[in-house]
Model the fold of this input.
Amino acid sequence: MSSVLTENRIKSVNESCRGPLMLMFISAAAWLVISAVFACLASVRFHSAGFLADVSWLTYGRVHAASMNALIYGFAIQAGLAVATWLICRIGKARLAGAMVVTIGAGFWNLGVTLGLMGILCGGSTGFEWFEMPGQVNLMLLAAYISVAGFALVTFHHRRNRDELYPSLWFIVAALFWFPWIFTTANALLIGAPVRGTMQAVVAWWYANNLAAVFFSFIGVGALFYFIPKVSGRNLFSRSYLLLAFWVTAIVAPFGGIPADAPVPAWMPSMSTVAAVLMLVPVLAIAMTVHSTLGQEKCMTGWSDSNLKFFLFGALAFVFGGMLNAVGPALEVVNHVFPPLYNGSPAAEVPGLGGQIEGTPFSQDNFVQFTLLTPALAQLALYGFLGMTLFGAIYHIVPQLMGDDMPSAAWKELHWKASVAGVALTVVPLILGGIYQGGQWNESLRDFAATTGLPVNMLRAGLLGHLALLLGAVLFLANLKLIYWRKCCPCCVPSFLRVAGGESKTAEASS
Amino acid sequence: MNRGPLLFLGAFFALSLSWFGIILSPQLQIGSQNPSDAADLGIRHPAPRSGDAHAGLQVYRAAGCVYCHSQQVGQGGVIFDVALTKAGIFADDVANAILRVNSDLGRAVVSNGVGNTNGFIFMRDVDFETADHAMKRVGEVGGNVETALIPKPTGRDIKLGWGARRSVARDYLYEYPVQLGSQRIGPDLTNIGNRRPDAAWHYRHLYAPNTVIGGSAMPGYRYLFEEADKEEDAVTVKIGDQEHRVVPTEKGRQLVAYLLSLRNGPRLFETPMPKQVKPQPAIAVADPAGAQ
Amino acid sequence: MSDEAKNNDLNPAEDREPSVSDVAVPMWMMGLLIVLLWFGMLFLDQRAGGFDEQVYRPYPSLAFVENLSVTDPPSIARGRALYNVNCAGCHQSNGGGVSGQFPPLRGSDWVTAPKADRLVRVAMNGLKGPIHINGESFNDAGTAVMLSVGSDNKFNAEQMADLLSFIRASKDIGNSSPMVAPDDITDAMAAAESRGKTPWTEAELMAIPVE
Done:
């Protein structure tokens, strides 16, 4: 029977992935723990100004940057890459090509992130948000990335399943192309031969926006649209919806990311505003695809499914974050296209030239720029959407790689609860703080210092959330370590697995 | 979509679009700007920093100040003053026209102002349409009457004293890395050198922020200081009942020199600001800030 | 394999891959995309400043910025450069001076007098002894001396005129008195030539009319 053949093929695919992917999953989980520790340290600095003030490498600016970079480069990119690799192997029904090189590449990626974080803590940060790791390690990171993603693409090329491409693969393959290009561009223009003045900020915004709005979105959405139908046992709704979402995102999203009041010519922030509004279409298409795939009923009952709920949360966070991102820009566009709607005077042809124009309600200049809504949306995208989706994917993949259940279902459940609580306790206070700042920072603001109290309290409250995330990350790591020890250490068969074990230990020891 | 190459080309095309749009074309526009050589400036702006202030940017970067402080001033709008620069030969008609567009002015003030050859601001803080209308009405009188429109940047940041005008790309020509910032957990620092010109204040603030700004959430930066052994250059910081006598390390000195060098720039072509018109109080309740 | 299927208790059989249904995108969604694109273009038409590099928010167009952009007389601009190098150290770049130490230039009755004759002499030869400015007395002890700026032919008459015009008539300083012409400088110096190059005192200067 063909199913026996398929079973054997799947088994062989999983075996080929086991070593390198387990290394990447475990290291990613370790970085998640490290990131949470740094995030806690950063929050503590808001509780006590004098605490650790004598230690340069524990100053707020450094631990905050270390925490973000551990989360982005250590966890999100690494785990995303591993999940993407598995999906390519699995959907293409092909064994992972160059598993050995992938393993070594993953090892170097972790080495690079370790050195990068040490660089940040020693004061070597580049000063560009989301791109802080010192330039010297970036070459190593790029080589490591290419050896992993390159072989994933080779595997894709040799896929056995020659049916029409499954939608997840569009997103994932495009994402794999995307990263090296933006990373190289950022390196060349910020570190290699730095562009002058404000162009640095433009390049840094472009890089961070492409990383978040395209690379991470594509990896997360690609994973969602494989695992949601898979876990719920239903068919994916509508190729054409996703085709629309894919192309609109790929073409429009990279134009975002320039803040409204940035010191650049007016057309740049205006392009970003329009891009943010257009992004409503893919977000809507993706929301409808998730909804129609699961059906009304499953959308509700899915929350009791120990795996599906991770994906549901991820999808919800994606849609919510996407909508929230577009609110300010959409209102601004509407305000300018229909001026009578907000000031009753069709004569105000050129807003901004008449004294009180800034009174437009919810103008994005007030609400989004410089307020805590920015980190709130970033946290929601990184942890609520991508993180949760990757957790669910890893909980799905690892038992198959190892041929055993996760060692502790209770830990998994607690990890879920801690993560939900952690995301809520970090994102909600930031949103509240951001809305408060937006409300206060209007034209009549005369005493800035008086408006900083509540936002700072919200940052203080974030400590609770980061502690919850830390707890979740520790349980996640423990579960992965345990299944690894249980299944691999006794037998340790193929030689590259030994390398894998060694690498993952060094990665953790050094961190 | 069934082909890898098609997918690759599609992604390549999409990314190229944004690369041309957001990287290349701005680079062609603002990537090769020069310091302002506008004839009216006389000074070059911006000027590169030197010495301690130059090194201080790297201390600022390494400490990650950028995560809480922005360095960019926004501008919500422009408001206008209108001045009569030359009354021409029909001074009485001009005075009447002025009274028609701004009835708040007394006749005595107007006839006095029209007689003044150095310029007479007869309308303050109005929007563009009103100003334009007023200039047209007064200009209709003819007889070589001349009026001038005086643009004044306004907006939240400017009213907070964070700068006299918005920040533009040219202001950052010599910065590497540019530290624009995305958060305002603390205030904007574009103009901090003018707002807080006292180095000792900065030292005390960096050592123990709470002692100079009550309730400040800024963490202390004690690692930029060491205990004083020489008396003369020590800074005294009082925390509670305890007095600390400390001297900044080299990095601390550089950081403060950098902070003191941060000043909002002068008028540039991109950001029109008032030209000198005799600042006399034409309106009884003159706004002293508006007069300059 | 049965083992694996059991592991993922909530998963259907592992070999069943999801398939994709092909429902067309509804017209309203394409319509929404087109409407948003249209709005976006209207918005860019208003708010992109003609894609010009010199137009920043909130200015609408290059023509508008150009219209507002005004220039100082060239003499003021040249004077500013001289001032920043030679005077700003004591009198500050805004001419505010330092209370009790360096007299202010902004609003000073010495600077803004209708004629610049006293000011020219101070700048050329310097000033010593106590002096009263707007009623406030400076240098009571008489020890401080304002050094000469223009002696030794360091500047020609034109440069001196630029410098003093800047002090008297620029918005940087905040004064708006008539500017100074090169002839004013040469005339004043010719009148005072017999006196030599020593710094002036307040008493001497008060004898010179400025009305």
